[in-house]
């Protein structure tokens, strides 16, 4: 019985040393969220710019083939869906202040994490597939009068770019964001546990 009491006292002393400073945790969480929201903000800006450019191409350029229009529409709808998802995630992170309601903010972070997992999972691959399909249909007419080496170069660079985004960039960026998010959620949960 003495060993158990000794073990309990050591364990309680250790947890006392692991207590987190509320101000420090909230400051770190706010900094981490600011980094993520900045990335989302610039992603929204870039997506809106590309959507505007695609809209201009669709409505102010004349194409001979209906496949070109189908390709552009596929790309626009896909980009619009992705932009809506990014905006929704941005709003989740910006709707509350972490310092005012840390418990509610923790729930928002968990919701953002679930949304991001969906975006990073199956939706990203569908996004890349549809963008690739739209570009392929668009390039049929655009490159119809080009030489074979030019066509091979354009298609090859497009394929390489999409493969780079899918298999390297996606893993690197999303993994980094996921690690930051997990760290923030863990800190907020530990902080919440200190007050229960």
TrEMBL record:
Keywords: Membrane, Transmembrane, Transmembrane helix. This is Uncharacterized protein. GO terms for molecular function: ATP binding. Coiled coil: none annotated. It comes from Mucilaginibacter yixingensis. It is a multi-pass membrane protein. It comes from the Bacteria. It is found in: Cell membrane. InterPro entries: ABC1_TM_sf.
